[in-house]
Amino acid sequence: MSWEAWHLSSCVLALWPPFIKDRSKANALPMKSKKASSFHEFARNTSDAWDIGDDEDEDFSSSSSSLQTLNSKVAKATAAQVLENHSKLRAKPERAQSLTVARRARWGWRGADSFPTSPQHLLLAEEACVRTALQKQQSLPLRPVIPLVARISDQNASGAPPMTVREKTRLEKFRQLLSSHNTDLDELRKCSWPGVPREVRPVTWRLLSGYLPANMERRKLTLQRKREEYFGFIQQYYDSRNEEHHQDTYRQIHIDIPRTNPLIPLFQQPLVQEIFERILFIWAIRHPASGYVQGINDLVTPFFVVFLSEYVEEDVENFDVTNLSQDVLRSIEADSFWCMSKLLDGIQDNYTFAQPGIQKKVKALEELVSRIDEQVHNHFRKYEVEYLQFAFRWMNNLLMRELPLRCTIRLWDTYQSEPEGFSHFHLYVCAAFLIKWRKEILDEEDFQGLLMLLQNLPTIHWGNEEIGLLLAEAYRLKYMFADAPNHYRR
Fold it and tell me: Model-level pTM?
């Protein structure tokens, strides 16, 4: 993706779908944004760059026609604010630099995955943004290209130091645990909490997710049986994707797959996309209570990369999967399906009708932040920023769109080691992640600036060191509040 496209993406910040329909009335709206009246209202009034040029935004809870009519005041007010800001930018070019290019240079950029960038949105933003983009392009500092997935997945973003004595000792400890007749899963979790070495991560993840048994002798037969079972589902169900009652599900999956980590070449390969389509469709068919929900597609990618790394020594990010045998690809596909299924079993209320799990988690995050950093909480209230406006995605995608994939993989080492890591510990990680940016949050003094920051946090250069500090803070918060929930309730 070109820099100009990135910049145009940033310029359509907060241009939500209702703005497209009501542009002529936007300037007449009051500038005070109002709290969304319901979860569905916000979810259906917002989208991101993964919603490109299609009309599936009605998918969100579309199974019921009894949903409330949308109250779009939040979106309209934000759009009106953007229009006003754009008019100021045209009058003051130096202000344009401070709001767009300078902010991007300061924060960094992790891809167009924050707000909608459909052709219609881009056309509306182009007049206000394209001149500034072209004028400032040459003045932007060059950034080093850092792999998003592979070589640095087990090290800091700053380089690739040789394995230390401590790391060699840890690796040997893992190998001893994994090769024992009956792996001590409690000890394996304890060793995995601070991160799993790349060499043993695939088998460790299979064990921690509950996919493989602890008994060494049963593992080979279990893998063979579960892989055959998965491809039995393919034979039984996959042709039904063309049937009328499954067409909407398959269509949404087919639309979402190309958007899955669009900046990583691995996931743009047709063969990989076909694998993801099968995994997601079979999961949806076997879980009719929720079916497929946008965001689940993201949750396949860490498993796929980890199980692929078992067969690939070089840079996974650019690896051509057609170089692998059919048997290897089938093994990676089946293992990714089963481990993703195990993960979703623990957080399925995030994806059932009305997504009650996410509603509860966002509310719990708001209560927690109000107690641990009242200044940040009051800052959001002052500028009428609702937690749902940024934290919905944090819960729906488990921070995957806020972090490089290498960091997500490291984060999931701990999540799979922690009791209820994906369903419970994630709340404290989100709180620690939010407070990490308290200075930048408090420096922003308008609704648009806060949303722009929270939707594009500068984590592109993060590595294991940053994730380790984040997890340590999350553990501290959990220790303080998890067993005394009244501490974070007013």
Answer: 0.71
